[in-house]
């Protein structure tokens, strides 16, 4: 293939996968994910937000709802039949807003997951000190700070792009659209620097924190399990053993959340890195990202299943909530 020849992909193939991945799959999964995270918030509220873990999981549910809502909007405006002039809003402008809002909430979700894993890692190695430092108040401060500080991710991009209504003679109407504020070299340089920091360095930092903390926790749990197998198990079951089992279940649940985060979101970052280095493969970017976006949607949608399977307290509260809901529905039907 000559250097001047442009690589292409059958538009029909791309269109089929975009519609199937982004609409048929991601929209359906995302809708259930939004409902599931709303149920998570309801469940945690019923449990009582009285410890650092519940605060963090509640904050995680809020960020996942934000990511899923933004992703739902992005999926719709990025479908093949959405074009300029089909409405009063330029799909590109809406796509820009939804894309970066989703990116913001995904990064918030990542740092919250990393904090939850780091918190359990500290609790495993220094349990007594952790109880004094990692309090509910500390969790509230950290989670609020994550939401606030990561606004830095959004502000530059929304400064670079200007939104306004513009009259388009071709369609004989005004359309809400977006323009770059300037084409100067300074603007291009700023955008490139932002890309390296927010889209390359930040996600990999989140993955690094999650991988290190998860690995340390898993290694510690294995060592502890081996030690327990070497001692005589003739003692009676007591409250300390019960607390240890509860702590282990909590750790396993948080490690599972961390692993799901890494497995579902790492492919997107890897593909972005590949396309940045090998720009000749940009022609398959929409097709490839339709799969990685679907993985992001799955990640934000499965938390309620993980909690239900691994948390007895969550499962008990969920059972009571669903039982009360069924009774209310039946009583309404009878009356």
Automatic annotation (TrEMBL):
Indicate the transmembrane segments per the record: 16-41, 53-74, 94-118, 139-159, 193-218, 250-275, 281-308
GO cellular component entries = membrane
G-protein coupled receptors family 1 profile domain location: 36-307
- Membrane topology according to the record: Multi-pass membrane protein
What's the chief localization of this chain?
membrane
Cite the Pfam families for this sequence: 7tm_1 (PF00001)
Can you say where in the cell this protein is located? Answer: Membrane
Q: Which GO terms describe its molecular function?
A: G protein-coupled receptor activity
Enumerate the UniProt keywords alphabetically.
G-protein coupled receptor, Membrane, Receptor, Transducer, Transmembrane, Transmembrane helix
Which InterPro entries does the record associate with it? GPCR_Rhodpsn, GPCR_Rhodpsn_7TM
Query: Gene3D superfamilies in the record, alphabetically?
Result: Rhodopsin 7-helix transmembrane proteins
> What is the protein name stated in its UniProt record?
Psychosine receptor
Q: Which organism is it from?
A: Biomphalaria pfeifferi (Bloodfluke planorb)
